[in-house]
């Protein structure tokens, strides 16, 4: 480069630095400015030899990230300094110890966290990417600012990605959609989340992006005119109330328009709410609520509101801290318009996320608003039973869900994802309450655990020490927290049953004169066609593998030829897998409807479902039930046009499935007989009693009992044991 060009670049860098101080959201003290200046000087020196792919000096990147951190997100001087230094340790000769010595422990810790994230390999493999995401979130322990600066770093990289090769652009854009946009959303950085999504779409689906962008530009004039006419109608009334306000039109993001077009299978022109109108007013803190509702009243005097589209996030702010009043009204020309009513403070929180919270609420502490969320997140991160992919899916499930607000009997307010059930609420209060839920009352009435809650419900949880999760609970729960806790509990239960089974197996093999060792366990795993040794122990503990089957194994073992032959046939591909300490789930049976009936079915050719896929049954005219995947190309049409023929269906592991059976008992009525019968049932851990009815007539005793068991063997044993009770005459299955 010529001396003239270098001089020009130096001036540009100095200009950027002055701009950084000027646009900072916070008021910077002299001490702050000194810290930022030192960080700036070190960054300029460290990166002096480096250039970006576009050819510009590398230092422009850390300055741009620091500007996003300072103005868009509104973080403190420590964060601005860390943003300036975020690539220094990774890319230059400066070490972490140098940074700590010059800038102190906090800046060094943030820079270290950012360096760790940068060194994580990006993998196309979703599970590895998910595992990296989990690791990234673990750095939240160190400092929430690590993640926020990383989001700013990613935003600038996305804004300046044009000179990269196409395959890298797609890779980085996909990772942004998968990880960084959801994170920005959760921290309350809505503007940044929107920009990240739009920029990602620009590289993942360029044609669609450019098409929507050009159509938005074309309709801008029309949109401005519409907003002007809308504003004109209400301005006189707002002015009459002497309100200090501003009306802005905000176009919907390209990404959200694209999502609407996909979800509703409509064209750009058919998306009706392509923009929102924002009314931002100035107000003293104590008048905020009063003025918001006054503006609501004025808007609805002029335009008819859609009653089901009122969202009051002023009385009950979102868990991200977002506050506003949203109404959808029928505007001029018969178009629905979303109107967002916010005070200046609420608007800052909506744009700056938690940083604005700190400004208004927590002047002494920089993590007040995030504390509750971080605690919940930490709990999930430390749950090793949940796989990385499940974790990410549940994390995202909890991110994007709309919220409802429900009350405890004492009147405490909880926010839950829309669609949450009474069981989800139990887990939201406390894990232990969730795990021991026996029943729930909503607005004073007893309801099933699967009951879907509505905003404003008052929910009471009835607990019992004996209650514990069953497989069905997974059908009743909808929030990530509840699902992961139930899965962990079921896993623990199965492990407990497996441990009991191991002891039972030892005793039974001893009586069959077979050694309990690795060889015999491996042989049994093959013989009973299970995947792991833990599966084998579980099935023995649950009574699925009984004495009769173990005797069959013993006799096959004594026949050397048969044993050799069976081993040949059943030899597993991977010997190691046999001793894996996990209980695996098989999908070997398809059941239909709420009653989980076994019915005849055929697989459809259009989507070829396989065991484990999310599926539904469709009742055809000539071919009985045909099974389709939920995302089958024909699913929308079938479910929309022939909903009455659609049957819910799911795959289950038949060996771990519960069956309902009804027993009819007759005998001679004696004192304590009922007690003995129920005691026999309750003492068996693998039997759940669902219904009991006893009658006594002139000394003759009759009873009906509904029990839930894992299989027929357990039921047969129960029948035999009840028959042995003194006074029982007959026990039959209905």
Automatic annotation (TrEMBL):
CDD domains: HDc, NT_Rel-Spo_like, TGS_RSH. GO terms for biological process: guanosine tetraphosphate metabolic process. One of its GO terms (cellular component) is plasma membrane. Residues 402-463 form the TGS domain. Transmembrane segments: none annotated. It comes from the Bacteria. Belongs to the relA/spoT family. In eubacteria ppGpp (guanosine 3'-diphosphate 5'-diphosphate) is a mediator of the stringent response that coordinates a variety of cellular activities in response to changes in nutritional abundance. This is RelA/SpoT family protein. It comes from Patiriisocius marinistellae. The gene is relA.
């Amino acid at each position: 480069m010529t001396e003239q060009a270098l001089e020009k670049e130096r001036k540009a860098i100095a200009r950027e630095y002055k701009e950084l101080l000027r646009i900072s959201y916070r008021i910077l003290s002299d001490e702050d400015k000194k810290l930022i200046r030192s960080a700036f000087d070190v960054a300029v020196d460290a990166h002096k030899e480096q250039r970006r792919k576009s050819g510009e000096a590398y230092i422009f990147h850390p300055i741009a990230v620091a500007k996003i951190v300072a103005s868009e997100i509104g973080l403190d001087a420590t964060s601005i300094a860390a943003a300036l230094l975020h690539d220094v340790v990774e890319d230059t000769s400066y070490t972490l110890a140098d940074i700590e010595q010059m800038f102190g422990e906090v800046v060094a810790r943030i820079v270290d966290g950012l360096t760790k994230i940068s060194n994580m390999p990006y993998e196309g493999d979703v599970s590895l990417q998910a595992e990296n995401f989990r690791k990234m979130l673990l750095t939240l322990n160190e400092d929430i600012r690590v993640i926020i600066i990383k989001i700013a770093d990613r935003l600038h990289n996305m804004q300046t990605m044009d000179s990269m090769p196409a395959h890298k652009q797609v890779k980085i854009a996909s990772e942004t959609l998968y990880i960084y946009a959801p994170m920005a959303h959760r921290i309350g950085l809505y503007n940044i989340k929107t920009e990240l999504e739009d920029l990602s779409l620009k590289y993942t689906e360029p044609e669609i992006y450019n098409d929507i962008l050009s159509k938005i530009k074309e309709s801008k004039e029309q949109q401005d005119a519409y907003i002007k006419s809308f504003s004109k109608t209400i301005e006189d009334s707002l002015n009459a109330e002497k309100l200090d306000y501003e009306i802005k039109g905000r176009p919907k993001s390209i990404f959200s328009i694209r999502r609407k077009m996909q979800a509703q299978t409509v064209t750009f022109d058919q998306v009706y709410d392509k923009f929102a109108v924002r009314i931002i007013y100035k107000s003293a803190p104590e008048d905020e609520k009063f003025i918001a509702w006054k503006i609501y009243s004025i808007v609805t005097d002029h335009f008819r509101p859609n009653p089901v589209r009122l969202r009051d996030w002023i009385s009950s702010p979102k868990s991200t801290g977002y506050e506003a009043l949203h109404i959808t009204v029928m505007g001029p020309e018969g178009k629905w318009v979303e109107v967002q009513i916010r005070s200046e403070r609420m608007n800052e929180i909506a744009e700056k996320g938690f940083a604005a919270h700190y400004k208004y609420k927590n002047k002494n502490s920089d993590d007040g608003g995030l504390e509750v969320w971080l605690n919940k997140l930490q709990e999930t991160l430390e749950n090793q039973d949940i796989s990385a992919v499940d974790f990410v899916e549940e994390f995202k499930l909890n991110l994007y869900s709309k919220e409802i607000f429900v009350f405890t009997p004492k009147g405490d307010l909880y926010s839950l994802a829309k669609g949450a059930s009474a069981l989800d609420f139990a887990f939201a209060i406390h894990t232990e309450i969730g795990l021991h839920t026996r029943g729930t009352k909503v607005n004073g009435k007893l309801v099933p655990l699967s009951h879907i809650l509505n905003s404003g419900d008052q929910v009471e949880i009835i607990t019992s020490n004996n209650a514990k999760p069953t497989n069905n609970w997974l059908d009743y729960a909808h929030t990530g927290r509840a699902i992961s806790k139930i899965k962990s509990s079921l896993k623990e239960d199965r492990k407990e049953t497996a441990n009991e089974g191991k002891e039972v197996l030892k005793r039974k093999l001893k009586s069959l004169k077979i050694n309990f060792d690795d060889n015999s366990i491996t042989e049994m795993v093959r013989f009973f066609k299970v995947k792991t040794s833990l599966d084998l122990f579980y099935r023995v503990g649950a009574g699925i593998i009984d004495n009769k089957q173990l005797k069959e194994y013993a006799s096959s073992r004594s026949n050397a030829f048969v044993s050799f032959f069976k081993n040949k046939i059943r030899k597993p591909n991977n010997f190691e897998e046999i001793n894996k300490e996990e209980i695996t789930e098989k999908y070997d049976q398809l059941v239909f409807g709420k009653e989980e009936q076994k019915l005849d079915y055929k697989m459809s050719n259009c989507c070829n479902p396989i065991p484990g896929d999310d599926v539904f049954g469709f009742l055809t005219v000539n071919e009985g039930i045909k099974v389709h995947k939920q995302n089958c190309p024909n699913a929308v049409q079938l479910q929309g046009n022939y909903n009455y023929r659609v049957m819910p269906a799911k795959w289950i592991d038949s060996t771990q499935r519960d069956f309902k059976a009804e027993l009819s008992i007759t005998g001679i009525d004696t004192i304590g007989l009922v007690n003995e019968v129920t005691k026999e049932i309750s003492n068996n851990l693998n039997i759940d009693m669902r219904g009991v009815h006893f009658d006594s007539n002139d000394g003759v005793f009759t009873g009906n009992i509904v029990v839930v068991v894992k299989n027929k063997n357990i039921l047969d044993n129960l029948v035999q044991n009840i028959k042995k009770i003194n006074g029982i005459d007959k026990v039959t299955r209905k």
